[in-house]
Write a structure and sequence with these properties.
By secondary structure, the protein is α+β, with helices and mostly antiparallel strands. The protein has one domain. The chain contains four helices and 17 strands. The strands form three sheets. Strands 1-2-13-12-14-10-11 form a seven-stranded antiparallel beta sheet, with helices on one face. The protein has a five-stranded antiparallel beta sheet with strand order 3-17-4-15-16.
Length: 279
C-alpha cells in the first residue's frame, strides 16, 4: 500500500511537470501552495456590443432594403470629401480609417461626382460652400429634372428641388449636397419615373419624414427607380426624397461591422452620434 501511494504521488508530480495540452489555460501555483490568479486577457468588445444600430432590414415588394434612420435628437449630419492632405477619400473604407467608429452611426455615398470624385452639383461642408448650385441641362440621372438638394443646419434637415432651393434658401447651411433625380416631390413621384421601369441596379437615396427624420435607404439587390420611389412615398410616407446614386452605392454601419467596398465614390454623408453633452 505504501509503495502504491508512492507511485501515485510520483506520477502526480511528473504530470504536474508536463506542459499542458495546446489551447488549455495555464494554472500558476505559488511556492506556498496557494493558487495565484490566472491571467486571462479581457475580451475585446465589438462595436456591435457597444452601440445600437441605426439601420434596419426591410422587404418591399420582394426586394431587400436597408433603412438607416437619422434622428435629430440623437444624430448630427455632415458631409465629407477629402482627408487632411486634400486627397479625396474615394471610398468609405478610406474614410473609416480617419474616424472613431463609436462616434459614427453610419455613412453613405452622397450624390453625383466627376472622374476625380468631386461633386458636380451644390456641395457644402462644415458651412463652407465648395461647389455652387448646378442648374445646367444635360444627360444622365443628375439632370433628370427636377433634381434636388439635401441640406441642413443643426437639427433641421430638408430636401428641396434645385429650383425651390435657389429661390427660397438664402442662408448657407452647415451641410448640403445636390443630386438627382428627385424621387418624390411634394408627395408625388417624379413625373418621369415609371411604376417599375426596366433600369435595375443597387441604388440609394434619402428622404425626410413628417417627424424630421432622415431615412437613408440602400437596396440589397437591383431595384428600379419606381419601386424605390414608391417605398419612400407609400411605406415611409415622406413628402420629398432624393436619389443619391446607383451601382456605386455603399454603406458603412459600424454597429453591424458592415463596410461596403466597390467602385470609387465621391462625397460622403456622415451621420454622427451625439454625445450626452450635445443633446
Amino acid at each position: 500500500m505504501i509503495r502504491a501511494a508512492l507511485l501515485i504521488g510520483l506520477a502526480t508530480a511528473v504530470a504536474a511537470c508536463q506542459p499542458p495540452a495546446e489551447g488549455e489555460p495555464v494554472a500558476r501555483v505559488q511556492v506556498s501552495g496557494s493558487p495565484a490568479a490566472t491571467e486571462t486577457p479581457a475580451p475585446t468588445a465589438s462595436i456591435a456590443s457597444q452601440v445600437e444600430s441605426a439601420c434596419r432590414s426591410v422587404i418591399f415588394e420582394n426586394t431587400p432594403l436597408t433603412d438607416c434612420i437619422a434622428i435629430p435628437e440623437r444624430h448630427r449630419i455632415a458631409t465629407a470629401l477629402a482627408n487632411g492632405d486634400g486627397a479625396n477619400f474615394r471610398s468609405l473604407a478610406a474614410f473609416a480609417e480617419t474616424r472613431d467608429p463609436l462616434a459614427i452611426a453610419f455613412a453613405v455615398n452622397a450624390g453625383m461626382f466627376d472622374d476625380d470624385g468631386d461633386p458636380i452639383g451644390y456641395y457644402v461642408e462644415g458651412g463652407e460652400r465648395k461647389k455652387e448650385l448646378n442648374t445646367a441641362d444635360g444627360e444622365g440621372n443628375f439632370h433628370m429634372k427636377p433634381n434636388g438638394v439635401f441640406f441642413g443646419t443643426g437639427d433641421v434637415w430638408e430636401i428641396r428641388t434645385s429650383d425651390d432651393f435657389l429661390k427660397n434658401v438664402g442662408e448657407r447651411p452647415q451641410f448640403g449636397t445636390q443630386s438627382g433625380p428627385m424621387l418624390v416631390v411634394n408627395g408625388r413621384l417624379h413625373p418621369e419615373i415609371t411604376q417599375d421601369g426596366p433600369s435595375r441596379t443597387v441604388r440609394n437615396a434619402v428622404g425626410i419624414d413628417d417627424k424630421g427624420r432622415a431615412h437613408f435607404v440602400i437596396s440589397s439587390a437591383p431595384i428600379s427607380f419606381g419601386k424605390l420611389a414608391r417605398f419612400y412615398r407609400d411605406e415611409l410616407k415622406v413628402k420629398n426624397a432624393l436619389y443619391l446614386d446607383g451601382s456605386v452605392s455603399q454603406l458603412w454601419n459600424p454597429a453591424t461591422e458592415r463596410l461596403d467596398t466597390g467602385a470609387p465614390i465621391g462625397p460622403i454623408l456622415v451621420v454622427e452620434r451625439k454625445v450626452p453633452d450635445d443633446e
